[in-house]
Specification:
Blueprint (H helix, E strand, L loop, with lengths): L4 H11 L8 E3 L5 E3 L1 E2 L10 H10 L12 H19 L8 E6 L2 H11 L7 E5 L8 H6 L1 E5 L9 H10 L4 E7 L11 H10 L3 E5 L22 E5 L10 E6 H5 L11 E4 L4 E3 L13 H17 L1 H20 L4 E3 L12 E6 L4 H12 L1 E2 L1 E3 L4 H7 L4 H10 L9 E5 L6 H15 L7 E4 L4 E4 L6 H4 L17
Parallel strand pairs: 3-15, 5-6, 5-7, 7-8, 8-9
Antiparallel strand pairs: 1-2, 4-10, 9-10, 11-12, 13-14, 14-17, 16-17, 18-19
The chain binds pyridoxal-5'-phosphate (PLP).
Length: 481
Protein backbone atom coordinates (compact mmCIF):
# COMPACT_ATOMS: atom_id res chain seq x y z
CA UNK A 1 0.00 0.00 0.00
CA UNK A 2 2.20 2.85 -1.20
CA UNK A 3 1.02 6.35 -1.58
CA UNK A 4 0.89 8.57 -4.62
CA UNK A 5 2.99 11.73 -4.94
CA UNK A 6 0.05 13.94 -4.09
CA UNK A 7 -0.75 12.08 -0.85
CA UNK A 8 2.93 12.23 0.14
CA UNK A 9 2.66 15.97 -0.28
CA UNK A 10 -0.40 16.08 1.91
CA UNK A 11 1.16 13.90 4.60
CA UNK A 12 4.30 16.07 4.52
CA UNK A 13 2.08 19.09 4.97
CA UNK A 14 0.64 17.63 8.16
CA UNK A 15 3.95 18.07 9.94
CA UNK A 16 3.61 21.84 9.87
CA UNK A 17 0.06 21.36 11.19
CA UNK A 18 1.37 19.97 14.49
CA UNK A 19 1.60 22.30 17.46
CA UNK A 20 4.97 21.94 19.19
CA UNK A 21 6.72 20.20 16.30
CA UNK A 22 9.79 22.46 16.73
CA UNK A 23 9.83 22.68 20.52
CA UNK A 24 13.40 22.76 21.76
CA UNK A 25 14.38 20.85 24.88
CA UNK A 26 17.60 20.94 26.91
CA UNK A 27 19.87 17.92 26.94
CA UNK A 28 22.22 16.62 29.59
CA UNK A 29 25.28 18.03 27.77
CA UNK A 30 23.87 21.57 28.01
CA UNK A 31 22.83 21.82 24.34
CA UNK A 32 19.28 22.06 23.03
CA UNK A 33 17.52 19.90 20.48
CA UNK A 34 14.17 19.70 18.75
CA UNK A 35 12.01 17.36 20.83
CA UNK A 36 11.40 14.13 18.99
CA UNK A 37 8.04 12.79 20.07
CA UNK A 38 7.62 9.07 19.53
CA UNK A 39 4.84 8.37 22.00
CA UNK A 40 1.84 9.04 19.79
CA UNK A 41 0.12 5.83 20.91
CA UNK A 42 -0.29 7.43 24.34
CA UNK A 43 -1.59 10.81 23.16
CA UNK A 44 -0.93 12.80 20.02
CA UNK A 45 -0.10 16.50 19.83
CA UNK A 46 -2.74 18.92 18.56
CA UNK A 47 -3.31 20.01 14.97
CA UNK A 48 -3.11 23.79 14.47
CA UNK A 49 -6.38 23.71 12.56
CA UNK A 50 -8.02 22.07 15.58
CA UNK A 51 -6.93 24.90 17.84
CA UNK A 52 -7.97 27.46 15.20
CA UNK A 53 -11.38 25.84 14.89
CA UNK A 54 -11.82 25.91 18.67
CA UNK A 55 -10.88 29.61 18.70
CA UNK A 56 -13.38 30.31 15.92
CA UNK A 57 -16.08 28.45 17.78
CA UNK A 58 -15.49 29.95 21.23
CA UNK A 59 -17.26 33.29 20.53
CA UNK A 60 -20.32 31.13 19.74
CA UNK A 61 -19.86 28.85 22.70
CA UNK A 62 -22.90 28.31 24.85
CA UNK A 63 -24.49 25.49 26.81
CA UNK A 64 -26.36 23.17 24.45
CA UNK A 65 -29.86 21.72 24.25
CA UNK A 66 -31.16 24.04 26.96
CA UNK A 67 -31.52 27.57 25.59
CA UNK A 68 -33.38 29.66 23.02
CA UNK A 69 -30.63 32.27 22.74
CA UNK A 70 -28.99 32.51 19.34
CA UNK A 71 -25.64 31.24 20.61
CA UNK A 72 -27.32 28.31 22.34
CA UNK A 73 -28.98 27.38 19.05
CA UNK A 74 -25.74 27.72 17.07
CA UNK A 75 -23.77 25.72 19.65
CA UNK A 76 -26.46 23.03 19.75
CA UNK A 77 -26.43 22.67 15.96
CA UNK A 78 -22.65 22.48 15.94
CA UNK A 79 -22.62 19.94 18.77
CA UNK A 80 -25.18 17.74 16.96
CA UNK A 81 -23.08 17.92 13.81
CA UNK A 82 -19.99 16.73 15.70
CA UNK A 83 -21.89 13.53 16.57
CA UNK A 84 -22.58 12.94 12.90
CA UNK A 85 -18.92 13.47 11.97
CA UNK A 86 -17.69 11.16 14.77
CA UNK A 87 -20.16 8.45 13.69
CA UNK A 88 -19.42 8.75 9.98
CA UNK A 89 -15.71 8.47 10.71
CA UNK A 90 -16.33 4.82 11.59
CA UNK A 91 -18.92 4.30 8.86
CA UNK A 92 -21.90 4.18 11.22
CA UNK A 93 -25.39 4.22 9.78
CA UNK A 94 -26.82 7.02 11.88
CA UNK A 95 -30.42 5.99 11.36
CA UNK A 96 -29.93 2.88 13.45
CA UNK A 97 -26.92 3.87 15.59
CA UNK A 98 -26.27 6.50 18.21
CA UNK A 99 -23.04 8.35 18.85
CA UNK A 100 -22.43 9.03 22.54
CA UNK A 101 -19.74 11.33 23.84
CA UNK A 102 -17.93 10.80 27.11
CA UNK A 103 -14.47 11.48 28.44
CA UNK A 104 -12.41 8.83 26.65
CA UNK A 105 -12.40 5.20 25.53
CA UNK A 106 -12.13 3.93 29.10
CA UNK A 107 -15.27 5.77 30.15
CA UNK A 108 -17.10 4.55 27.04
CA UNK A 109 -16.25 0.93 27.83
CA UNK A 110 -17.28 1.33 31.46
CA UNK A 111 -20.59 2.78 30.29
CA UNK A 112 -21.18 -0.06 27.87
CA UNK A 113 -20.24 -2.71 30.45
CA UNK A 114 -22.79 -1.25 32.86
CA UNK A 115 -25.47 -0.81 30.20
CA UNK A 116 -25.20 -4.42 29.03
CA UNK A 117 -27.07 -5.59 32.14
CA UNK A 118 -25.14 -8.84 32.29
CA UNK A 119 -26.38 -11.73 34.41
CA UNK A 120 -23.79 -13.41 36.59
CA UNK A 121 -23.64 -16.40 34.25
CA UNK A 122 -22.94 -14.29 31.15
CA UNK A 123 -19.55 -14.54 29.50
CA UNK A 124 -17.51 -11.81 27.80
CA UNK A 125 -14.66 -13.06 25.65
CA UNK A 126 -11.57 -10.86 25.67
CA UNK A 127 -8.11 -11.60 24.35
CA UNK A 128 -4.88 -11.59 26.34
CA UNK A 129 -3.85 -8.69 24.08
CA UNK A 130 -6.30 -6.23 25.59
CA UNK A 131 -5.48 -2.92 27.23
CA UNK A 132 -6.69 -2.98 30.85
CA UNK A 133 -9.46 -0.58 29.81
CA UNK A 134 -10.94 -3.28 27.57
CA UNK A 135 -10.70 -5.97 30.22
CA UNK A 136 -11.32 -4.66 33.75
CA UNK A 137 -14.70 -2.97 33.05
CA UNK A 138 -16.13 -6.29 31.77
CA UNK A 139 -14.80 -8.13 34.82
CA UNK A 140 -16.97 -5.91 37.02
CA UNK A 141 -20.19 -7.27 35.56
CA UNK A 142 -19.58 -10.62 33.82
CA UNK A 143 -17.32 -13.64 33.70
CA UNK A 144 -14.42 -12.73 31.42
CA UNK A 145 -12.67 -15.48 29.48
CA UNK A 146 -9.36 -14.51 27.88
CA UNK A 147 -8.39 -16.18 24.64
CA UNK A 148 -4.76 -16.97 23.94
CA UNK A 149 -2.23 -15.15 21.82
CA UNK A 150 0.25 -16.70 19.41
CA UNK A 151 4.02 -16.55 19.97
CA UNK A 152 4.24 -13.66 17.46
CA UNK A 153 1.84 -11.62 19.60
CA UNK A 154 -1.22 -12.01 17.37
CA UNK A 155 -4.57 -13.21 18.68
CA UNK A 156 -4.89 -16.99 18.41
CA UNK A 157 -7.98 -17.01 16.23
CA UNK A 158 -8.49 -20.77 16.53
CA UNK A 159 -8.56 -20.45 20.30
CA UNK A 160 -11.04 -17.61 19.96
CA UNK A 161 -13.33 -19.75 17.79
CA UNK A 162 -12.95 -22.69 20.21
CA UNK A 163 -13.81 -20.46 23.17
CA UNK A 164 -16.91 -19.18 21.36
CA UNK A 165 -17.97 -22.80 20.82
CA UNK A 166 -17.28 -23.83 24.43
CA UNK A 167 -19.31 -20.94 25.86
CA UNK A 168 -21.98 -20.88 23.16
CA UNK A 169 -25.25 -19.68 24.65
CA UNK A 170 -23.46 -17.89 27.49
CA UNK A 171 -21.28 -15.50 25.47
CA UNK A 172 -22.97 -12.12 25.26
CA UNK A 173 -20.05 -10.17 23.91
CA UNK A 174 -16.64 -10.47 22.31
CA UNK A 175 -14.56 -7.43 23.32
CA UNK A 176 -11.46 -7.06 21.20
CA UNK A 177 -9.01 -4.32 20.34
CA UNK A 178 -8.92 -3.05 16.78
CA UNK A 179 -5.17 -2.68 17.14
CA UNK A 180 -2.81 -3.42 20.00
CA UNK A 181 -1.21 -0.49 21.79
CA UNK A 182 1.79 -2.74 22.51
CA UNK A 183 2.65 -4.48 19.23
CA UNK A 184 0.50 -2.49 16.80
CA UNK A 185 -1.08 -5.71 15.53
CA UNK A 186 -4.46 -5.06 13.87
CA UNK A 187 -7.05 -7.73 14.51
CA UNK A 188 -9.41 -9.11 11.83
CA UNK A 189 -12.36 -7.45 13.51
CA UNK A 190 -14.88 -8.22 10.79
CA UNK A 191 -14.13 -11.95 10.81
CA UNK A 192 -14.33 -11.96 14.61
CA UNK A 193 -17.66 -10.11 14.33
CA UNK A 194 -19.03 -12.83 12.06
CA UNK A 195 -17.93 -15.61 14.44
CA UNK A 196 -19.36 -13.74 17.42
CA UNK A 197 -22.69 -13.22 15.66
CA UNK A 198 -22.90 -16.91 14.68
CA UNK A 199 -22.48 -17.75 18.35
CA UNK A 200 -25.32 -15.38 19.23
CA UNK A 201 -22.99 -12.74 20.70
CA UNK A 202 -22.30 -9.08 19.93
CA UNK A 203 -18.89 -7.56 19.29
CA UNK A 204 -17.28 -4.50 20.81
CA UNK A 205 -14.15 -3.07 19.18
CA UNK A 206 -11.79 -0.95 21.25
CA UNK A 207 -10.59 1.36 18.49
CA UNK A 208 -8.48 3.65 20.70
CA UNK A 209 -5.43 2.66 18.64
CA UNK A 210 -7.06 1.74 15.35
CA UNK A 211 -8.98 4.96 14.74
CA UNK A 212 -5.94 7.27 14.33
CA UNK A 213 -4.25 4.87 11.90
CA UNK A 214 -6.74 3.01 9.73
CA UNK A 215 -9.99 3.58 7.90
CA UNK A 216 -12.84 1.98 9.86
CA UNK A 217 -16.19 0.86 8.51
CA UNK A 218 -18.47 -0.83 10.99
CA UNK A 219 -20.76 -1.89 8.07
CA UNK A 220 -24.57 -1.87 8.06
CA UNK A 221 -26.20 -3.25 11.20
CA UNK A 222 -27.69 -6.22 9.38
CA UNK A 223 -24.37 -7.36 7.87
CA UNK A 224 -22.86 -10.53 9.35
CA UNK A 225 -19.54 -8.72 9.77
CA UNK A 226 -21.04 -5.60 11.34
CA UNK A 227 -19.29 -4.17 14.40
CA UNK A 228 -22.02 -3.66 17.00
CA UNK A 229 -20.17 -1.30 19.33
CA UNK A 230 -17.00 0.73 18.90
CA UNK A 231 -15.15 3.34 20.98
CA UNK A 232 -12.23 5.70 20.44
CA UNK A 233 -10.57 8.76 22.01
CA UNK A 234 -9.94 12.25 20.66
CA UNK A 235 -6.66 12.69 22.52
CA UNK A 236 -5.13 10.01 20.30
CA UNK A 237 -6.40 11.79 17.17
CA UNK A 238 -4.77 15.23 17.40
CA UNK A 239 -7.59 16.76 19.47
CA UNK A 240 -6.72 16.35 23.15
CA UNK A 241 -9.66 18.28 24.56
CA UNK A 242 -11.11 15.50 26.68
CA UNK A 243 -13.66 13.64 24.65
CA UNK A 244 -14.30 10.01 23.79
CA UNK A 245 -16.75 8.39 21.38
CA UNK A 246 -18.99 5.36 21.78
CA UNK A 247 -21.10 4.17 18.85
CA UNK A 248 -23.75 1.49 19.16
CA UNK A 249 -27.29 0.57 18.14
CA UNK A 250 -29.89 3.14 19.12
CA UNK A 251 -32.33 0.39 20.15
CA UNK A 252 -29.74 -0.92 22.64
CA UNK A 253 -29.27 2.43 24.38
CA UNK A 254 -32.93 3.37 24.06
CA UNK A 255 -33.82 0.52 26.42
CA UNK A 256 -33.36 0.81 30.18
CA UNK A 257 -31.81 3.39 32.45
CA UNK A 258 -28.72 5.36 31.43
CA UNK A 259 -25.59 4.51 33.40
CA UNK A 260 -25.45 8.06 34.78
CA UNK A 261 -28.59 10.02 35.55
CA UNK A 262 -29.23 13.71 36.05
CA UNK A 263 -29.67 16.85 33.98
CA UNK A 264 -30.10 16.31 30.25
CA UNK A 265 -30.99 12.63 30.45
CA UNK A 266 -34.73 13.05 30.91
CA UNK A 267 -37.87 14.21 29.17
CA UNK A 268 -40.07 14.17 32.29
CA UNK A 269 -39.34 14.09 36.02
CA UNK A 270 -42.05 13.71 38.65
CA UNK A 271 -41.25 13.38 42.32
CA UNK A 272 -41.73 9.63 42.00
CA UNK A 273 -41.15 8.83 38.34
CA UNK A 274 -38.94 9.65 35.40
CA UNK A 275 -39.15 9.38 31.64
CA UNK A 276 -35.81 9.14 29.90
CA UNK A 277 -35.03 11.52 27.08
CA UNK A 278 -33.98 10.73 23.54
CA UNK A 279 -30.49 9.76 22.45
CA UNK A 280 -27.75 10.85 22.63
CA UNK A 281 -28.79 13.20 25.47
CA UNK A 282 -30.13 10.30 27.52
CA UNK A 283 -26.61 8.85 27.71
CA UNK A 284 -24.69 12.12 28.10
CA UNK A 285 -25.60 13.18 31.62
CA UNK A 286 -24.84 16.78 32.61
CA UNK A 287 -23.45 19.59 30.48
CA UNK A 288 -21.41 18.00 27.71
CA UNK A 289 -17.91 18.83 26.49
CA UNK A 290 -18.97 20.91 23.50
CA UNK A 291 -15.51 22.37 22.86
CA UNK A 292 -13.95 18.90 22.94
CA UNK A 293 -16.51 17.72 20.42
CA UNK A 294 -15.71 20.63 18.09
CA UNK A 295 -11.99 19.84 18.35
CA UNK A 296 -12.59 16.18 17.59
CA UNK A 297 -14.79 16.91 14.58
CA UNK A 298 -12.14 19.20 13.09
CA UNK A 299 -9.36 16.65 13.63
CA UNK A 300 -11.44 13.92 11.99
CA UNK A 301 -12.16 16.24 9.07
CA UNK A 302 -8.43 16.85 8.58
CA UNK A 303 -7.71 13.10 8.68
CA UNK A 304 -10.50 12.32 6.24
CA UNK A 305 -9.18 14.96 3.87
CA UNK A 306 -5.71 13.46 3.95
CA UNK A 307 -7.17 9.95 3.69
CA UNK A 308 -6.71 7.11 6.14
CA UNK A 309 -5.23 4.95 3.37
CA UNK A 310 -2.50 7.51 2.84
CA UNK A 311 -1.82 7.60 6.58
CA UNK A 312 -1.60 3.80 6.75
CA UNK A 313 0.76 3.79 3.75
CA UNK A 314 2.97 6.45 5.31
CA UNK A 315 3.21 4.49 8.55
CA UNK A 316 4.10 1.35 6.67
CA UNK A 317 6.97 3.21 5.00
CA UNK A 318 8.18 4.39 8.42
CA UNK A 319 8.04 0.85 9.83
CA UNK A 320 9.95 -0.49 6.84
CA UNK A 321 12.56 2.21 7.45
CA UNK A 322 12.86 1.86 11.23
CA UNK A 323 12.66 -1.90 11.87
CA UNK A 324 15.69 -3.06 9.83
CA UNK A 325 17.80 -0.28 11.33
CA UNK A 326 16.82 -1.29 14.85
CA UNK A 327 17.38 -4.97 14.05
CA UNK A 328 20.99 -4.20 13.13
CA UNK A 329 21.72 -3.08 16.70
CA UNK A 330 23.01 -5.99 18.79
CA UNK A 331 20.93 -6.69 21.89
CA UNK A 332 17.83 -4.89 20.63
CA UNK A 333 14.83 -7.25 20.61
CA UNK A 334 11.68 -6.20 18.83
CA UNK A 335 8.36 -7.80 19.80
CA UNK A 336 5.50 -8.53 17.45
CA UNK A 337 5.73 -8.81 13.65
CA UNK A 338 8.83 -7.50 11.89
CA UNK A 339 8.54 -9.17 8.46
CA UNK A 340 4.91 -9.10 7.38
CA UNK A 341 3.78 -5.60 8.28
CA UNK A 342 0.45 -5.74 6.47
CA UNK A 343 -1.58 -5.82 9.65
CA UNK A 344 0.62 -3.71 11.86
CA UNK A 345 0.38 -0.03 12.60
CA UNK A 346 3.25 2.26 13.49
CA UNK A 347 4.23 0.93 16.90
CA UNK A 348 7.52 -0.79 17.73
CA UNK A 349 8.03 -2.27 21.21
CA UNK A 350 11.55 -3.39 22.11
CA UNK A 351 14.00 -4.19 24.87
CA UNK A 352 17.77 -3.76 25.09
CA UNK A 353 19.64 -6.72 26.55
CA UNK A 354 21.13 -5.92 29.93
CA UNK A 355 19.39 -2.56 30.35
CA UNK A 356 16.20 -1.82 32.21
CA UNK A 357 13.39 -0.41 30.05
CA UNK A 358 13.13 2.63 32.35
CA UNK A 359 16.85 3.32 31.98
CA UNK A 360 16.66 3.19 28.18
CA UNK A 361 13.71 5.59 28.16
CA UNK A 362 15.49 7.95 30.60
CA UNK A 363 18.65 8.07 28.49
CA UNK A 364 16.67 8.62 25.28
CA UNK A 365 15.12 11.63 26.96
CA UNK A 366 18.10 13.13 28.81
CA UNK A 367 20.67 12.66 26.06
CA UNK A 368 18.54 12.49 22.92
CA UNK A 369 15.55 14.74 23.64
CA UNK A 370 13.35 11.83 22.57
CA UNK A 371 9.99 11.09 24.18
CA UNK A 372 9.03 7.40 24.22
CA UNK A 373 6.96 5.24 26.53
CA UNK A 374 8.26 2.44 28.73
CA UNK A 375 6.70 -0.05 31.12
CA UNK A 376 3.80 -2.39 30.51
CA UNK A 377 1.50 0.01 28.60
CA UNK A 378 -1.58 -0.92 30.67
CA UNK A 379 -1.49 -4.40 29.18
CA UNK A 380 0.19 -6.48 31.87
CA UNK A 381 -1.07 -9.96 30.90
CA UNK A 382 -0.02 -9.36 27.27
CA UNK A 383 3.35 -7.99 28.34
CA UNK A 384 4.08 -11.05 30.47
CA UNK A 385 3.21 -13.35 27.56
CA UNK A 386 5.39 -11.45 25.10
CA UNK A 387 8.30 -11.46 27.55
CA UNK A 388 7.76 -15.10 28.53
CA UNK A 389 7.53 -14.27 32.22
CA UNK A 390 6.90 -17.53 34.06
CA UNK A 391 4.18 -17.71 36.71
CA UNK A 392 6.92 -18.29 39.33
CA UNK A 393 8.82 -15.17 38.27
CA UNK A 394 5.59 -13.19 38.26
CA UNK A 395 4.82 -14.37 41.78
CA UNK A 396 8.29 -13.61 43.13
CA UNK A 397 8.33 -10.11 41.64
CA UNK A 398 4.99 -9.35 43.21
CA UNK A 399 6.10 -10.71 46.56
CA UNK A 400 9.35 -8.72 46.49
CA UNK A 401 7.66 -5.34 46.18
CA UNK A 402 4.05 -5.81 46.90
CA UNK A 403 3.35 -2.08 47.25
CA UNK A 404 5.15 -0.99 44.12
CA UNK A 405 6.15 -3.92 41.97
CA UNK A 406 8.74 -3.23 39.33
CA UNK A 407 7.07 -5.12 36.59
CA UNK A 408 8.62 -6.45 33.45
CA UNK A 409 8.28 -4.08 30.57
CA UNK A 410 9.51 -2.74 27.27
CA UNK A 411 10.24 0.53 25.52
CA UNK A 412 7.78 1.59 22.82
CA UNK A 413 8.15 3.99 19.93
CA UNK A 414 4.93 4.93 18.19
CA UNK A 415 4.39 7.07 15.12
CA UNK A 416 1.91 9.76 14.26
CA UNK A 417 0.80 10.70 10.75
CA UNK A 418 3.37 13.55 10.88
CA UNK A 419 6.38 11.44 11.99
CA UNK A 420 9.22 11.45 9.46
CA UNK A 421 12.46 9.62 8.75
CA UNK A 422 14.46 12.34 10.46
CA UNK A 423 12.66 11.50 13.74
CA UNK A 424 13.59 7.86 13.25
CA UNK A 425 17.23 8.69 12.42
CA UNK A 426 17.60 10.72 15.62
CA UNK A 427 16.03 7.90 17.64
CA UNK A 428 18.04 5.05 16.08
CA UNK A 429 21.33 6.99 16.39
CA UNK A 430 20.68 7.53 20.10
CA UNK A 431 19.62 3.90 20.55
CA UNK A 432 22.88 2.82 18.94
CA UNK A 433 24.83 4.89 21.48
CA UNK A 434 22.86 3.22 24.26
CA UNK A 435 23.43 -0.27 22.89
CA UNK A 436 27.17 0.44 22.58
CA UNK A 437 27.10 1.85 26.14
CA UNK A 438 28.34 5.16 24.74
CA UNK A 439 25.88 7.24 26.68
CA UNK A 440 27.41 9.92 28.85
CA UNK A 441 25.23 10.31 31.93
CA UNK A 442 25.33 8.66 35.33
CA UNK A 443 22.00 7.09 36.17
CA UNK A 444 20.75 5.66 39.44
CA UNK A 445 17.54 3.83 40.12
CA UNK A 446 15.12 4.42 42.97
CA UNK A 447 14.35 0.82 43.89
CA UNK A 448 10.98 1.69 45.38
CA UNK A 449 9.64 3.13 42.10
CA UNK A 450 11.88 1.74 39.39
CA UNK A 451 12.44 5.32 38.16
CA UNK A 452 15.89 6.49 37.12
CA UNK A 453 17.53 9.73 38.16
CA UNK A 454 20.14 11.43 36.00
CA UNK A 455 23.11 13.03 37.73
CA UNK A 456 23.10 16.77 37.04
CA UNK A 457 19.84 16.79 35.10
CA UNK A 458 16.26 17.15 36.16
CA UNK A 459 13.19 18.53 34.47
CA UNK A 460 12.00 21.87 35.83
CA UNK A 461 8.45 22.09 34.49
CA UNK A 462 8.05 25.71 35.62
CA UNK A 463 10.85 26.70 33.28
CA UNK A 464 8.83 25.57 30.27
CA UNK A 465 5.32 26.56 31.19
CA UNK A 466 4.37 29.72 33.05
CA UNK A 467 2.19 27.89 35.57
CA UNK A 468 -0.54 30.53 35.57
CA UNK A 469 1.89 33.27 36.48
CA UNK A 470 -0.03 36.35 35.26
CA UNK A 471 3.17 38.17 34.32
CA UNK A 472 3.53 35.61 31.58
CA UNK A 473 7.15 34.91 32.38
CA UNK A 474 8.26 31.45 33.19
CA UNK A 475 9.44 30.86 36.73
CA UNK A 476 13.21 31.05 37.13
CA UNK A 477 15.16 27.87 37.61
CA UNK A 478 17.72 25.98 35.64
CA UNK A 479 17.03 22.65 34.06
CA UNK A 480 20.54 21.34 34.07
CA UNK A 481 22.27 21.80 37.43
C1 LIG B 1 -5.87 -0.14 23.01
C2 LIG B 1 -6.30 0.91 24.01
N1 LIG B 1 -7.51 0.80 24.57
C3 LIG B 1 -7.96 1.70 25.45
C4 LIG B 1 -7.18 2.75 25.85
C5 LIG B 1 -7.71 3.72 26.82
O1 LIG B 1 -7.89 4.94 26.18
P1 LIG B 1 -8.21 6.24 27.04
O2 LIG B 1 -7.03 6.45 27.91
O3 LIG B 1 -8.37 7.29 26.01
O4 LIG B 1 -9.43 5.97 27.81
C6 LIG B 1 -5.89 2.89 25.31
C7 LIG B 1 -5.01 3.98 25.75
O5 LIG B 1 -3.83 3.96 25.57
C8 LIG B 1 -5.45 1.95 24.37
O6 LIG B 1 -4.25 2.04 23.81
Amino acid sequence: MHQTQSTVWKIAELRSEVIGIDTKVPLLDGTERRYVFLDNAASTPTFKSVLKCVEEFLPWYSGVHRGMGLKAVVATNVYDETHRIAGEFVGADLVSNSVLFGKNTTESINKLAKRFNFSPNDVVICTVMEHHSNDLPWRKYAKVVHTAIRPDGGVDLDDLKRTLEIYKGRVKLVAVSGASNVTGICNPIHDIAEWAHSAGAKIFVDAAQLAPHRAIDILPNRAAKHIDFIAYSAHKIYAPFGIGVLVGPTEFFAKGEPDMVGGGTVSYVGTDDVEWGSLPQKEEAGSPNVVGAVALAEALTVLRTVGMEAIAGHERTLLEYAIPRMQKLPGVRIYGPTEDLTNKMGVIPFTVDGLDHALVATILSAEGGIGVRNGNFCAQPYMRKLLNVTPEEEKSRRAARCDNPILPGMVRVSFGCYTNEDDIDIFVDMLERIVKREYKGKYSVDPSTGMYMTDGYGVNAAKHFRFFNPAGASVAGEEVA
